[in-house]
Fold each of these.
Amino acid sequence: MSNSFIKTGVIGHPIAHSKSPLIHSYWLDLYGFNGSYETIDIKTENLKQDVLNLVNNGYSGFNVTVPHKIAMMDLCDEIDDLAKTIGAVNTVTIKDGKLYGTNTDAFGFIQNIKDTVQRENWDWSFEKGKALVLGSGGAANAIIYALIKEGVPAITITNRTREKAEELQKIAPDKISVVEWSERNNACKDVQLIVNTTALGMSGKPPLEIDISQAPNTALVNDIVYAPLYTDLLKQAKARNLKVVKGIGMLLHQARPGFEKWNGKMPEVTKELEEIVLK
Ligand SMILES: NC(=O)c1ccc[n+]([C@@H]2O[C@H](COP(=O)([O-])OP(=O)(O)OC[C@H]3O[C@@H](n4cnc5c(N)ncnc54)[C@H](OP(=O)(O)O)[C@@H]3O)[C@@H](O)[C@H]2O)c1
């Protein structure tokens, strides 16, 4: 049990919808830590001053969500290579009045898949085959970087706005190819991993129209959208008996490094935590 009270939270605008307080409060209780994790609503025009207030009010750190992930880069005293490469900060640690920024989306994405593969005892690994990434937004950036680091031999990216996919191709031009969005069904051929990183299929957004029938029987399908828990893409993959990894796990795993930095304990993702967050 830690004696000092550790103040943490998540900054963003709007912020009331954030699931992060549920995750961190669960871990604070589970491990018996003396601390708090709040939602902190900060408007763009107040970012610099409000962040300074957090420092002056003794916060140990905070998560960063929309719309501050890029602007936060300029407010940190130091940014690690991961956040620099991804171009966005989602976790800040405060030490001796200084702000240290990192990005944990890549970690969350990889750990979610590894955790599920291990739990299900699947014969599958990142190095074994090609990946198809749908989308080229902020999340795709972190995911493509992570896939290259994990040794995926080749990646195909497809995105409605082709130029954004071509921008991400620069992460590893020798391993990444870009195909037209209209070619996404054919792009499922020969891949061992299909990841949806677009906002399509999320509650309130248009559906993700894709036919994955050409994917091999050994493929793993992951949707980072987690509302609904089982998206149409995951339902399609389940119906074909493919390996299915839900998006909620990425949300839970990406929170772990921040908790560890602030409280000194790497927390575990449990079934109970998933149920609490989905309630
Ligand atoms: N599970 C998790 O922990 C986790 C983490 C991060 C994000 N997410 C989810 O991932 C999704 C993307 O997040 P993000 O931060 O990367 O968002 P983003 O930067 O806004 O990117 C959105 C992506 O969706 C595509 N898209 C949006 N509307 C489309 C449409 N009508 N037709 C085709 N493509 C469309 C965009 O294509 P264009 O480039 O053509 O606009 C872009 O590739 C969100 O649903 C978010 O909630 C989940």
Amino acid sequence: MSFDFSLSPRVEDWRDRIRQFIDDTVIPREQSAFTDGIDDDLRRTLQKAARDADIWAPQAASELGGGGFRFDEAAVLLEEAGRSLFGPLALNCAAPDEGNIHLLTVVGTEGQKEKYLRPLVAGDIRSSFAMTEPPPGAGSDPSALRTIARRVDGGWAISGDKHLITGADGAAVVIVMARDADSGKATMLLVDADNPGYRVTGHARTIDATMVGGHCQIRFDDAFVTTDAVLGEPGEGFRYAQVRLAPARLTHCMRWLGAARRAHEIAVRRCVERELFGHRLTEHGMAQQMIADNEIDLAAARSLLWHTSWLLSEGDKGTEASSRAKVFISEAVGRIVDRAVQLCGGMGTSDDLVVGRIYADIRAFRIYDGASEVHRMSIAKRVARRYE
Ligand SMILES: Cc1cc2nc3c(=O)[nH]c(=O)nc-3n(C[C@H](O)[C@H](O)[C@H](O)COP(=O)(O)OP(=O)(O)OC[C@H]3O[C@@H](n4cnc5c(N)ncnc54)[C@H](O)[C@@H]3O)c2cc1C
């Protein structure tokens, strides 16, 4: 048995070039994007630059035009991309497309791969993933699913409301989780944005501000889709959700770790320069504690992430491991960015210093892809079963 944390020359090469690209090409555009908002024009501009820099979609299969990296290698590269809130979008490894690319790769039919996966990996289209519903529908408890798919002549008719659906506005396709009206089982279906029975009905005004298309309310009103719109097999929706969610929550960890590292870097640079009460801030004990705690949280989060990503690369489903990692890392990155804000003083709360923007954007990560409480509940249940 050997523990080997060394990186291959190819991973090191991509990591260094991604770092350079984020510093030289993405970070200089951040302030105008914070002011003007992020749209598909900016997405296309950044994505063309990333493609030209040959750092395109590190996590996607190489036969589709991606980097073809293993999942544990992607952990290094997506952290690097995450140093800017727009980095993952530029490299086409941002949520929700990155998770949908993975799902379609694993369970999509050949036809679905041709129609949706190829253009998604190429960055020609965007997608969204629609699971959450307004109360009393599916949220933390997916079994409350209320959106219905009825079998009709030649296909299915979908009805129901979803909310908080990231990127739905402007997405070409939405992967919707619905309940088969006959069997009661959850089924995933692909619905094109121009389907006459489908529409985006509004946007939630959330505290984050850097996702293209925002977080949308959407409605299916007897939306008819043909039989081949079922993703994989009917009735397998919850199983496919697991296929998507374990890796997707880890790729979120990767990107947010990069964002937290950036906030910490900004804070430390400021502390080195800032003189207060006759000393630099880095010489004050209470500031030192925050700086040290950030380093400890960063290192612990990265170690857990690398180990869990390695498990997935080795074929483990990683259900419990990814829950553990998601809880620890989502809370650790929150602590890191919160300390960074504190160390930066008043300007730490602003977009100008970027730390404030990261602080607002990172908060929801403790809620989506399973709230901390839900993961803790499922970890505790599994542990209890082992002792029964
Ligand atoms: C920025 C953002 C982007 C999102 N993007 C998407 C998307 O693209 N697609 C999508 O389908 N959904 C998306 N969501 C929705 C997200 O998945 C849900 O918000 C999440 O699953 C929680 O569901 P809920 O909001 O209905 O909260 P509820 O289910 O009402 O839960 C509320 C709170 O209850 C607590 N809780 C839950 N279970 C327990 C328990 N067992 N014990 C103790 N406390 C508990 C938790 O603290 C939880 O936050 C997004 C959300 C946000 C904030």
